[in-house]
Structures are given as C-alpha cells and as structure tokens.
UniProtKB/TrEMBL annotation:
Name this polypeptide is given: Putative lipoprotein
Pfam families attached to this UniProt entry: META, YscW
Key words of the record: Lipoprotein, Signal
Signal peptide range in chain numbering: 1-19
Lineage, broadest ranks: Bacteria, Pseudomonadati, Pseudomonadota, Betaproteobacteria, Neisseriales
Gene3D superfamilies according to UniProt: 2.40.128.270
Source organism (scientific name): Chitinimonas taiwanensis DSM 18899
Domain DUF306: 135-244
InterPro entries: DUF306_Meta_HslJ, HslJ-like_sf, Lipoprotein_YbaY-like, Pilotin
PANTHER family, sorted: GLYCOPROTEIN/POLYSACCHARIDE METABOLISM, GLYCOPROTEIN_POLYSACCHARIDE METABOLISM
Length: 251
C-alpha cells in the first residue's frame, strides 16, 4: 500500500512529460568568405508575433569556431508552451570579437508544433551601413517582404520601394510596376497614408504584388524601425510589409 501511495504521489507532482522537439538545419554564407577561429555562430527560435515589440527567444544554439559553410545547427526545445496562434521564426547571426558580420535578413517561419522539415538558412554580410540606424524619412526603402511572403525584385519590371520625404510629408515609390504618390502623417510610432495614387501602366507579371502593395499601404497604421529594416503594421499590429534600406538602382 505504501509503495502504491508513493507512486501515486510521484505521478501527481511530476506532471506530464515534456514534449521535446529537435529542430535541425544549416546556414550558408558567401562562398568566398572565411570565418576566423574566434567566430561565434548563433541560431535562435523566436516568438515574432508582436511586430512592434522585441522578439522573445524560445531556444538558442551557440557554436564557437563553426567552420566552413554550410553551418549545421540543432535546436532543442519544449513545444508545450508554444501557442498555435503565435508566429515563430528562426534568426541566425555570426559575430567576431562582438561585432556582427553575418545575419539572416529573411524570415524563416517555424510551426508551433515543431513539425517543420530541416531549415536551410542564408546568411548575408553586414556592412557598416547596416549597423547604423537608417533614418525613417528621406531614405530609400526597398520592399523585401509583403504579407509574409518574400518579394523577389528581379521578377518585376522595377524594384518595389518607398521613399518618405520629410519635405511636405510626401511619399513616393514604386509597386514594382507603377509609380506611387501619397501624403503621410506621423505621430510617434503611428503613420497613415492619404491621397494614395499611382500611374496606370499595364504589368501582367506584377499586378498581384502591386495590388497587395497598395492595399497594405492603405491598412498601415504603425511603423517600426530596427537599424536598416522598416516594418509597416496595421491597427492590430499585424505585420504587413518589411523594407530594407538601400540605394536606388542605376537607370
């Protein structure tokens, strides 16, 4: 009887077994680049549900002197606390002497149940311009993500971009097909566009992206700026578009 009682008490206080998930993958960096022996490679699983708040780190993997590309990684975490209604993503970085040299600039989404296949991440070089914060206004912002999907400019007639001019608070840019013009108002982290208009050139290959771009601008109510990345959000703080600072393409 005593043994049975102890077994029952043990089951009550031990709780259910943790559902550990192992998420593996690799990260590639430019072929002509060699990492020094003191390089540090880190991969994080983040909760990115709130686009205007710091991401919450769920799991982390760190390697010193990771070696040649591709860099293999493995993350172990308990998926019990993960919320199916939240958004999760992988973020990777490489630093040398505390200085950031490589990062992922694309969102790699992860399912809350951890059922994803192996993830293959791409690391890009970080320039001095990337480290310094880019001003919101009077900067060239190229569109890299729209409604959660990566935007590939090479497939469009023009590079989709946005320019917020501080003179007269006028917005201009391109949907990837047509030129756009609008007014905008800034109040703290709030922003909204007014009088949105565009040229009317026919672009069958870019029609879907163009309409989604225009719709997203009309829904935009908030902005978030991190170094060289600009995020536009709706009234419920849902991420609509992501831009990266750049330079206008040569004619």
């Amino acid at each position: 009887m005593r043994i049975l009682l102890l077994a029952l008490l043990g089951s009550l206080f031990s709780g259910p077994a943790l559902a550990e998930v192992v998420l593996s993958g690799s990260a590639s960096y430019p072929a002509k680049m060699t990492l020094p022996v003191d390089a540090v490679f880190e991969v994080q699983l983040q909760d990115v549900s709130l686009a205007d708040a710091p991401a919450k780190v769920i799991a982390r993997s760190t390697q010193i002197s990771p070696g040649k590309s591709p860099l293999a990684f493995s993350l172990r975490f308990d998926n019990k606390p993960l919320n199916p209604k939240h958004s999760y993503a992988l973020h990777a970085r490489v630093s040398v002497d505390g200085k950031l040299v490589l990062i992922t600039d694309t969102r790699y989404t992860v399912k809350a149940d951890g059922s994803d296949a192996a993830q293959n991440l791409e690391l890009v070089k970080v320039s001095e311009a990337d480290v310094k914060a880019t001003p919101l206004q009077d900067s060239y912002w190229r569109l890299v993500q729209l409604n959660g999907e990566q935007v590939i400019s090479a497939k469009l007639p023009n590079e989709p971009h946005l320019l917020l001019s501080s003179a007269g608070r006028r917005a201009s840019g391109s949907t990837g097909c047509n030129r756009i013009l609008a007014g905008y108002a800034l109040v703290g982290s709030g922003i909204h566009f007014t009088g949105l208009g565009s040229s009317r050139m026919a672009c069958p290959d870019g029609a879907a992206i163009e309409q989604a771009f225009l719709d997203a601008l009309l829904k935009t109510k908030r902005w978030k700026l991190e170094a060289n990345q600009l995020s536009l959000l709706d009234a419920q703080r849902k991420l609509l578009m992501v831009f990266r600072a750049g330079t206008p393409p040569k004619p």
